[in-house]
């Protein structure tokens, strides 16, 4: 058994037994880690107040390779995200980031993915008017870090430059108008959406991100990118937080779903 120390984000907390919790982390050094916080729900537990989402923590835990669930020893809060905002939208957008981190990444430790998530939540805390831009950029960069950078410039079949594009959901490809001929129009990206994605793909977190070109009531770009990631990772998964986001944006219509 060894003692490990790393920075971490909490992905989810599950009640365990009468007073304990099992905490799922995305850690900087060791990727996804599940650890039991014994007695965490007791009044005098040292873990109380620390097992909340949207914080960057430093954790110390006992590690045994034969165990699926490790034992949490100590936890310290380094930074809270969204603390200055009373805007509940932060929590909804932030939840998509955490669920994507949980479900759309491999079990391989990846420091860059951890840093991307921290940068995204940080940006969302500081720019509550650019939550969508930050989420879309996060998904684009997550694809890139996973080795699946999306080509937003040329058609995946004929390689000609694209003015507008169509998302072929069966193969998770962006295609030009000609190559996408039999595809339904509902999966189209117009020129302003393409420019928005290109701008986000090439910008860094230090700059002001562009705002989404027009209001989309179905979060199409987010859905497309989540679909793209699940396809590339060959996963059969679904982000519940994205459904909540779409419902929040528009409780009535849910068209154009990849
Ligand atoms: Zn083409």
Per CATH, the class of the largest domain reads Mainly Alpha
Q: Helical stretch count?
A: 6
Mean pLDDT: 91
DSSP, total strands: 8
Largest sheet: 5 strands, mixed, barrel
Q: CATH topology of the largest domain, anyone?
A: de novo design (two linked rop proteins)
How far is the N terminus from the C terminus? 45 Å
- Amount of helix: 25-40%
How much strand?
Answer: 15-25%
Number of domains: 2
- The shape, in one word, is elongated
The helix-and-strand class reads: alpha+beta
Q: What value does the Rg take, in angstroms?
A: 20 Å
Strand order in the largest sheet: 1-2-3-5-4
Bound ligands = zinc ion
N-to-C SSE series? EEEEEHHHEEEHHH
Task: Please state the second-level CATH architecture of the largest domain.
Answer: Up-down Bundle
Instruction: Name the CATH superfamily assignment of the largest domain.
Output: Recombination protein O, C-terminal domain
The residue ranges in which pLDDT falls below 50 over 5 or more consecutive positions are none
């Amino acid at each position: 058994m060894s003692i490990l120390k790393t920075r971490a984000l909490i992905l989810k907390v599950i009640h365990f037994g009468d007073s304990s919790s099992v905490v799922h982390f995305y850690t900087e050094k060791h990727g996804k880690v599940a650890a039991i916080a014994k007695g965490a729900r007791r009044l005098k537990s040292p873990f109380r107040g620390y097992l909340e989402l949207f914080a960057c923590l430093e954790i110390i835990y006992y590690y045994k390779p034969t165990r699926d669930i490790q034992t949490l020893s100590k936890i310290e809060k380094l930074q809270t995200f969204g603390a200055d905002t009373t805007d509940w939208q932060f929590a909804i957008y932030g939840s998509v980031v955490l669920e994507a981190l949980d479900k759309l990444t491999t079990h391989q430790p990846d420091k860059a993915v951890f840093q991307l998530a921290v940068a995204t939540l940080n940006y969302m805390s500081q720019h509550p008017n650019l939550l969508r831009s930050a989420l879309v950029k996060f998904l684009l960069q997550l694809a890139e870090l996973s080795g699946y950078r999306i080509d937003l410039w040329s058609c995946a079949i004929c390689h000609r430059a694209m003015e507008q594009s169509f998302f072929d959901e069966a193969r998770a490809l962006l295609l030009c108008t000609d190559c996408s001929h039999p595809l339904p129009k509902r999966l189209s990206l117009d020129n302003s959406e393409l420019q928005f994605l290109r701008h986000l793909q090439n910008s860094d977190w230090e700059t002001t991100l562009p705002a989404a070109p027009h209001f989309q009531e179905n979060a199409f770009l987010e859905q497309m990118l989540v679909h793209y990631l699940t396809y590339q990772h060959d996963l059969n998964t679904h982000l519940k937080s994205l459904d909540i986001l779409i419902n929040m944006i528009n409780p009535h219509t849910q068209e154009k779903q990849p």
